[in-house]
Design goal:
Blueprint lengths: L1 H16 L6 E6 L14 E8 L8 H12 L7 E9 L1
Parallel strand pairs: 2-3
Antiparallel strand pairs: 1-2
Family: Belongs to the BolA/IbaG family.
Organism: Candidatus Kinetoplastidibacterium crithidiae TCC036E
Pfam family, one: BolA
């Protein structure tokens, strides 16, 4: 059941970020690397690599804010931590 929930969350993250019309999008669940980390139950660590023309002419900080805005109700749970790699 845990694997299904993780796959569902990866799918949810991808779905939320489609609004940015990415030309590339990868969501990686890194939760297994943080098994002993003190975090809320049923929350995980993720890495998002996203390339979008929506990021053209905006700073890296604004790119990250744009992604966070799409995911804000998922943080801090079920997304406990997220690594962002944004590209334009």
């Amino acid at each position: 059941m845990k694997e299904q929930n993780e796959n569902t969350l990866v799918s949810l993250i991808k779905n939320r970020l489609t609004v940015l019309q990415p030309s590339f999008l990868e969501v990686i669940d890194l939760s297994d690397l943080h098994k002993n980390h003190n975090k809320p139950e049923n929350s995980g660590h993720y890495k998002v690599i996203i390339k979008s023309d929506k990021f053209i002419n905006i700073s890296k900080i604004e790119q990250h804010r744009t992604v966070y805005k799409c995911l804000e109700d998922l943080i801090p749970s079920p997304i406990h931590a997220i690594i962002l790699e944004t590209k334009n």
